[in-house]
Design the sequence.
C-alpha cells in the first residue's frame, strides 16, 4: 500500500446510502476510492483545459511540422536513415 504523506482534510460527502452499505459490506475503503476518483477527475479536467488553452499554439506547431518536418529529418545519422525506419 502506498503511503501518502500529503496533508489530509476531512470533508463531508453525500453518497447513495445503498451504495455505501454495499461498499462497506465488501470492506472497500471509501476514502481511498473517492480520493482516487477525484484525483483522476482533476487530472482529466486539467488536461482538457490545458489542451483547450493551448489548442491554437499546438495547431500552429503541427502545421509547421507538416510543412517543414521535425528538426532531425534533415540531419543524417544512424538514428535517421531517411527511410522512416528506426
Sequence:
Amino acid at each position: 500500500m502506498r503511503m501518502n504523506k500529503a496533508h489530509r482534510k476531512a470533508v463531508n460527502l453525500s453518497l447513495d446510502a445503498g451504495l455505501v452499505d454495499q461498499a462497506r459490506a465488501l470492506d472497500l475503503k471509501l476514502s481511498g476510492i473517492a480520493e482516487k476518483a477525484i484525483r483522476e477527475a482533476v487530472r482529466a479536467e486539467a488536461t482538457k483545459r490545458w489542451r483547450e488553452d493551448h489548442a491554437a499554439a499546438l495547431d500552429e506547431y503541427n502545421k509547421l511540422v507538416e510543412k517543414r518536418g521535425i528538426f532531425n529529418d534533415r540531419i543524417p545519422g544512424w538514428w535517421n536513415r531517411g527511410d522512416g525506419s528506426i
